[in-house]
Design brief:
Belongs to the peptidase M3B family. Has oligopeptidase activity and degrades a variety of small bioactive peptides. Its EC number is 3.4.24.-. It holds the Pfam family Peptidase_M3. It comes from Brevibacillus agri. The structure is a single chain. The protein is an all-alpha fold. The protein has a domain at 7-166: Butyryl-CoA Dehydrogenase, subunit A, domain 3, CATH 1.20.140. The protein has 26 helices and 5 strands. It has helices at 25-38, 40-43, 53-83, 88-108, 110-117, 122-129, 137-145, 153-161, 163-166, 168-180, 198-203, 211-250, 255-263, 267-280, 282-296, 320-330, 336-347, 383-405, 415-418, 420-435, 440-476, 483-498, 524-544, 546-558, 564-571, 579-598, and strands at residues 186-187, 193-194, 351-352, 364-366, 374-376. A 3-stranded mixed sheet has the order 3-5-4, sandwiched between helices. A two-stranded antiparallel ribbon has the order 1-2. A hairpin with a 5-residue loop joins β1 (186-187) and β2 (193-194).
Length: 599
Amino acid sequence: MKTRQTRDQVAVEYTWNLDDLFASQAAWEQELDEIISQLPAVTAFKGQLHTGAETLLACLEAKEAIEVRANLAATYARLRSSEDGTNPQNQANSARVGDVVSRLNAELSFVPSEILALPDGTIEKFLQEEPGLAPFRKSLSDLLETKPYRLSAETEASLAALGEVFGAPYTIYQRGKLSDMSFAPVQDGAGAERPVSFALFEADYEMSADTTLRRAAYESFSNTLAAYQNSFAAVYATEVKKQTVLSRLRGFETVTDMLLHTQQVTLDMYHNILDIIGTELAPHMRRYAKLKARELGLEKLKFCDLKAPLDPEFSPPITIEEAGRLIQSALQVMGPEYSAIMEKALNERWIDYVDNVGKSTGAFCTTPYGNHSYILITWSGNMRSAFTLAHELGHCGHFTLATREQSYTNSRPSLYFIEAPSTINELLLGQHIMAQSDDPRLKRWVILQLMNTYYHNFVTHLLEGRMQRKVYEAAQNDVPLTAKKLSEWKGQVLAEFWGDAVELDEAASLTWMRQPHYYMGLYPYTYAAGLTASTAMAASIKEEGQPAVDRWLEVLKAGGTLKPLELMQKAGVDMSQPQPIRDAVAYVGSLVDELERLF
């Protein structure tokens, strides 16, 4: 049986180079000490912000400088932990940087508290008096919007000091998932024994054409999840309780209101995504499930068969190098500035490709201000991995441009927009491959890849969002969150969406345990929001060409200078209306129509 590699066995060229952040553990530790030593440069302004615009500017600049350094240090620790969560040094680093960040947040909490204590009109007066404050206008305006929900300076400082404690549910979830869980090996259709891990199941076995392997791996995976369900439920319940209590302390009507407030998203925008896609996409996806059952020769499509490939023989293996060249070619439409970022990312070790013991599952991209992006994926050697890489490179391109053009304070847009720049790359990759060939089988195969993208965002994450809505409604009414309840709600959400097209077992209801997104507020639904916008934008680029590309690049460079609705409107997509959502759903329906015709 092939065993998983340990971190030191992975070929260096397929790992990211964290020396670009800090040359050594010692250099990182020294930076933490220096960050703490620089705190007085900010805290010296305590009690002084009312004295004038120049003082406020000096304080904000000093605060931003130390936050940039702390972000780099925290990113280093997080990436080390992501590459191997079993390493004791990495675990210790995470704890240490958590202490430092909590201390920083506590000691710097006087800044927003003093700003909010200023008489009405003072900030606008300061902005007029001091041109240097212009880069802080948006963040100051956003801060003033939180005034009704701000607590006393002492309380805010106390809450900030508890930052590491508040982050404990996520830390415990990740530690349990990556370091403690083990899965029984299984046999594939040829009788060979295969190891099972979170990464192997989600990036490989779940999408295997080998039904024996796929179903056996699902059973092994689900059995381990079931053994941890009560512990994970308690951890998640703590996360939700934390958010619910904070929302009440701050005076929000509901916890949902609090979480959407930070995203600058209205309740209508939130519910539109969940309701329209949840109900109007379901008939299309049920047709897709029935098509899959028929083509796979299955009497009934089980939940564990949903990601089984159609026509797997046609999808040849693709190497990391081949995928890089294909993606670069597909994204040339974005112009030389964007393409140069892609080339550097692919050739200068910004990406960590290979699975190893303790490595984080899934994929992500992080771009610490003042440094380059770092991408984590688990390469499976199939075209789905290429689409995942294109997705993460979309985040890379976005934040490279945003951090290049904007200050640290203005570099991050709302979560509501975050997934648009990533998913558009998947759509552009699909368009590019189809444009290169008239082969109907190739076209069919590309449509299947695009369906994977829509499945991931419009089904997996959208249904997470619909479950979250149930969870927060229950929490608002003080309903206890137990493993039984969470599984019951997840089962309901799945049954409402799939109807009789998919056979749902008890293990399907445990999928609330699989995603870290539940520990990130109302994040899951934003995947669907982002893909809705990128669907519209990809169509515009195809129809208009350069004018649409120029609009899109300007939006990427805008970073966090605009609210999400304004940002998308700048690109030409009005997310205040249901039409873009319905257009995206209709597009998915057209893909299913085409598949029914081609199979």
